[in-house]
UniProtKB/TrEMBL annotation:
Modification 4-aspartylphosphate occurs at: 757
Reactions performed catalytically: ATP + protein L-histidine = ADP + protein N-phospho-L-histidine
Transmembrane segments: 12-34, 222-243, 250-268, 280-298, 318-337, 343-360, 372-392, 398-415
Keywords: ATP-binding, Cell membrane, Kinase, Membrane, Nucleotide-binding, Phosphoprotein, Transferase, Transmembrane, Transmembrane helix, Two-component regulatory system
Name of the molecule in the record: histidine kinase
Xref: Pfam families: 7TMR-DISM_7TM, HATPase_c, His_kinase, HisKA, Response_reg
PANTHER family, per the entry: OSMOSENSING HISTIDINE PROTEIN KINASE SLN1, TWO-COMPONENT HISTIDINE PROTEIN KINASE
Length: 1040
């Protein structure tokens, strides 16, 4: 069945091509018949009689027929109209090659002679006539009635005297009254260069002047029309090449058409030689070069379609032959090159014939559209064959460009059909790609959602394992677990980017514009990324001024933009400084992130903002990621109305710059993200700012039934909202406008909870949290962060810095209160645990202390009853002060602690006598009754100095208690000259994990002091010289 279909297809193609060739040939024959000399009178015996022929006024006629010819002599050139009787004449056919005639010229291709023709016309047809000479080899002069009227070159009877030139020329003349009805036309010609032709080889045209001008103009216009049509095809071929797929065949096609244009201008009226005065012989050389070039370009068009064996051998052989032929045209003299003209024509026709055969085969087997290429090849081949035939037969006719124009039209139809077919295929492919891209995004989004939960489970299990088993794991195992957690987090970032990209493509991201502190956002992002710089010599620097105007942006998305840019900078930098800077241009903030990393080349910069694009090197690929971060940044910046650009050089770093609109403070306040959701506004009770709790004034009066909160935010509106929420009686809230101010307030007393915004100038909430964690653990002072972003990266950064919890703005007031209550209950539980621990430690000391004391009392009862009574009295005081309920209060007067220590010293003095020496140094202005300290704070230090310091020495030692007034606070120092503490032990003496009882007591005292006033114990010791333990307590107002 398939063979039958193929056979029918071939038969159909044969029928189409046969009909097409028949139509071309028919039109060519009609054109040739219309311009044929058979319609016009011909010369006989040197006379052309046009009398009574009325068509002369309508068309010019060719001067064909028998002319009188004088070979080897120039006649009628001296003004006479009588020939030299010594020079024989003969009849010769014009047009024709004189070397083919017998006579005195001997059939030689070189020579000279004179042509003569008498033309008879009707006198009443007018006196103005013209003659057009197309080609006379290789020089000629025209005489009309004995007068020289035109020439091409200069004929002579020898090679040295003649000037060769063969270009068309036209001469017009007026018969005058003396020559009415008769025209004597004499043409002198000579040829000593053309080895193929001599004499008049093309028909000359004759007619009334206006008729001849009209016919020549028509012929020239036909050539112009053909050339314009050809030039249009050259132009669109070049345009398609430039804007399309850069198919080199389009260039070969355009060059082939250029050759057609040149061939058209060199044939017929030879307009190119008329416009450009070429040296003699170069016209023929250019014709041959154009023919060879045209064949070569056709060969290049079809070379890829040739069979592989033929393409390797025959194609190379053809190219070699073309090269040799071009060299022969350029290097050989004209007469030698003309002898090879048939070879040049064969080289031109072979590719054209191959093109036609190939198009026939491809049309039958591959693509039906190739029928137009086949018809174009047939039309072009037909035009070339006709051109050769007419030149060989010396038939002169008006230029016939229609074959080549039809060929160009067929090519245009082919390219048009191919273009529309490809456009339709491209459209369908684009739709399929869009669908595939949509399915890909949906798939990635689904995968990201499905992977998040197990991935977070893996991260959490790995993190918990590394924390739980950190004392058992080896260094390598601990590093492997830490790397596992880090890789999981990076993968989590990638999944979040995939989800964001899907939301951006679906336009599911909405922005809440507000006035945002660019400095604050930059600071918080830098704090979030500091962990990535561990192990790298990278410095993250925020150069955005704290006073930089607010930008009009979505705080959450601005955070994401800076995070991605800085993350990218850290990722591709191994050392150096990474800076965030900003300046203002025409109401826009220009924000730059600059690094000194690996940089990018120009090609990478062009595609770096496209989704899933990354640097191409293998080292960059190892850094991971999907290449979504920068694409997301660009889209988010554009959603803000700004632009994101990059400047970079390889190995010199990169600078990413984006723009944001500057906004006024008033507008910022009006559009800021509300701290509390509108549905949970807390102004229903009519509270005003005057009814809120007072701001901290630098002093502190403890209250066991009130929860002390410290709110930190640079926005006064948010602080006022927090005051309103916690204006109930059991809350006492103080405020700070910056992290630095909050750190100063930490030392003013004991706080139950810190509520801090994340985005603040100068010091972000992350940095503030980290600074607080240097002094307080997460249980001793809880921190609640307020953030506009609920992205995992921001939340992780908060927990990494040491926050207990976070709340996303705008928040629910009930949720905020619940979280505050939960965290403050945790704080109270920890405080209670510390106080109970202090009491337990004191109770653990009591049995040993009581046993020693009762032994001393027993001994005194036998030798000194008065001292025994004194010891029993001090023991009673010691129990009353040390075990009574005030031990569980948050604070007790300093005087109470000092009385407890005096009782302790009195009892121990009776035991150790001169081995224990005590020194008291208390400033006179120290008001011990009104200075409050945590209970059982000094007494453990004294017991430690006695038991583990001086009593370790056989000779005992001295314990010195020094209380110094420094104005706003007092310093309490307990020192001894005992055995001292080893340097290694001193480094860990305040660690909770120490096993020594003294270490536990010191740790408990240290943590309770940190809780109470923000500063703990300071221990100084030198082995063998003693130890000094001190702490500071802020003063309080005297009780009224």
């Amino acid at each position: 069945m398939s063979n039958y279909i193929a056979m029918m297809a071939k038969r159909k193609i044969w029928i189409i091509t046969t009909i097409f060739l028949a139509v071309l040939t028919g039109f060519r024959c009609l054109w040739l018949l219309y311009n044929s000399a058979s319609h016009y009178p011909v010369a006989t015996k040197g006379v052309l009689d046009l009398r009574g022929w009325d068509s002369l006024t309508k068309h010019s006629i060719p001067l064909n027929g028998e002319w009188q010819f004088y070979p080897g002599s120039f006649q009628f050139h001296d003004g006479t109209r009588q020939p030299d009787n010594e020079s024989p004449s003969r009849w010769i056919q014009v047009p024709g090659n004189w070397k083919l005639e017998d006579g005195t010229n001997g059939g030689d291709k070189y020579g000279f002679g004179t042509y003569r023709l008498r033309i008879l016309v009707d006198p009443d047809q007018g006196n103005a006539y013209g003659i057009h000479i197309s080609s006379t080899k290789s020089s000629s002069e025209v005489y009309i009635n004995g007068q020289l009227l035109g020439h091409s070159g200069q004929p002579a009877d020898n090679k040295d005297g003649y000037i060769p030139l063969d270009v068309p020329y036209t001469t017009y003349f007026d018969l005058g009254n003396e020559n009415k009805g008769e025209i004597e036309l004499v043409i002198q010609a000579s040829n000593f260069d053309n080895s193929r032709n001599g004499g008049i080889v093309r028909s000359m045209k004759f007619g009334p002047e206006d008729t001849l001008r009209k016919d020549l103009t028509f012929s020239t216009n036909m050539i112009w029309i053909a050339c314009v049509v050809y030039a249009i095809h050259v132009l669109y071929g070049i345009i398609i090449y430039l804007v399309g797929g850069r198919d080199r065949r389009l260039i070969y096609y355009s060059l082939m058409v250029v050759c057609v244009i040149l061939a058209t201008l060199l044939d017929g009226e030879r307009l190119l030689q008329t416009w450009i005065p070429l040296p003699f012989g170069w016209g023929s050389k250019i014709e041959n070069l154009v023919a060879l070039s045209g064949g070569y370009f056709v060969h290049q068009l079809i070379k890829d379609k040739l069979p592989s064996a033929l393409r390797r051998r025959a194609a190379r052989a053809y190219e070699l032959l073309c090269g040799i032929a071009v060299l022969s045209v350029l290097l050989l003299p004209l007469h030698a090159a003309l002898l090879l003209q048939e070879v040049y024509l064969v080289l031109m026709l072979v590719p054209c014939l191959c093109l036609a055969l190939m198009m026939f085969r491809s049309t039958a087997k591959i693509d039906a559209d190739n029928i137009f290429l086949l018809l174009a090849a047939i039309a072009a081949f037909s035009s070339m064959i006709w051109l050769l035939v007419l030149n060989y037969l010396h038939i002169e006719m008006i230029s016939y460009p229609f074959d080549l124009i039809i060929a160009m039209i067929c090519l245009s139809v082919f390219w048009s059909k191919r273009y529309f077919r490809m456009s339709e295929a491209t459209r369908q492919l684009a739709e399929a790609l869009q669908q595939a891209d949509k399915q890909k995004d949906e798939f990635l989004s689904t995968v990201a959602h499905e992977l998040r939960n197990p991935l977070h489970g893996m991260i959490n299990i790995s993190h918990a394992l590394s924390e739980r088993e950190r004392h058992k794991l080896g260094k390598q195992s601990a590093n492997d677990l830490r790397m596992l957690v880090e890789v999981g987090r990076r993968m989590s970032y990638t999944l979040n980017d995939l989800l964001d990209m899907a939301r951006l493509k679906e336009n599911r991201i909405s922005l809440h514009f507000t006035g945002v502190s660019l400095h604050g956002v930059a600071s918080s992002v830098i704090d979030m990324l500091r962990f990535m710089t561990e192990g790298k010599a990278i410095l993250l620097n925020n150069r955005v001024p704290a006073a930089f105007p607010l930008v009009y942006a979505d705080e959450n998305r601005l955070n994401q933009i800076l995070f991605n840019l800085l993350h990218n900078a850290v990722k591709y930098s191994n050392a150096g400084e990474i800076t965030v800077d900003a300046d203002i241009h025409d109401g826009w903030a220009s924000v730059s992130v600059t690094d000194r990393g690996i940089g990018m080349d120009t090609d990478t910069m062009k595609r770096i903002f496209e989704p899933y694009e990354q640097a191409a090197s293998s080292q960059d690929a190892l850094r991971g990621g999907f290449g979504l971060g920068l694409s997301i940044c660009k889209k988010l910046v554009e959603m803000h109305g700004g632009t994101l650009t990059v400047r970079s050089k390889p190995n010199e770093g990169s600078e990413f710059t984006f723009t944001l609109k500057i906004t006024a403070d008033r507008a910022a306040e009006e559009s800021a993200i509300p701290l509390i959701a509108a549905a949970d506004a807390v102004s229903e009770d009519g509270r005003t700012e005057d009814a809120r709790m007072p701001v901290h004034d630098g002093t502190y009066t403890p209250s066991s039934d009130r929860i002390r909160l410290l709110a930190v935010d640079d926005d006064p509106v948010n602080l006022n909202v927090l005051r309103t929420i916690f204006a109930e009686e059991h809350y006492e809230i103080s405020t700070a406008f910056s992290g630095e101010e909050a750190l100063k307030l930490l030392g003013s007393g004991e706080w139950d909870l810190i509520i801090s915004d994340v985005i603040m100038p100068a010091m972000s909430g992350y940095e503030l949290t980290a600074r607080i964690r240097e002094r307080f653990s997460i249980a001793e002072l809880p921190i609640l962060l307020l953030t506009a972003s609920n992205r995992e990266k921001d939340i992780e950064a908060g927990f990494r810095s040491g926050a207990n919890d976070y709340v996303t703005k705008p928040m629910n007031a009930t949720e905020l209160k619940t979280r505050v209550q939960s965290l403050t209950h945790l704080k109270k539980s920890v405080n209670e645990r510390l106080r109970m621990e202090a009491a337990l430690l004191h109770a653990q000391i009591q049995p040993h202390f009581l046993n020693n004391t009762f032994t001393a009392v027993s001994a005194l009862s036998r030798i000194d009853t008065d001292k025994m009574d004194d010891v029993i009295e001090e023991l009673t005081n010691y129990f009353r002060l040390g075990i009574d309920l005030p031990n569980f209060d948050q604070a007790a007067p300093l005087d109470r602690e000092l009385k407890l220590i005096r009782s302790y010293f009195f009892i121990q003095k009776e035991r150790f006598e001169d081995r224990l020496q005590t020194v008291w140094e208390i400033d006179d202005n120290v008001d011990a009754m009104n200075i409050r300290i945590p209970p059982l704070t000094i007494q453990p230090l004294v017991e430690n100095a006695v038991s583990h310091g001086i009593m370790k020495r056989s000779v005992g030692g001295e314990v010195r208690i020094r209380i110094t007034d420094f104005g706003q606070f007092v310093e309490i120092r307990v020192s001894d000259n005992g055995v001292g503490i080893h340097e290694d032990t001193l480094k860990h003496i305040l660690d909770k994990q120490t096993d020594k009882r003294a270490g536990i007591g010191l740790f408990n005292t240290h943590r309770r002091l940190m809780q109470f006033c923000g500063s703990g114990l300071k221990i100084e010791s030198e082995l063998g010289l003693g130890t000094s333990v001190s702490f500071t307590i802020p003063k309080t107002k005297p009780s009224s």
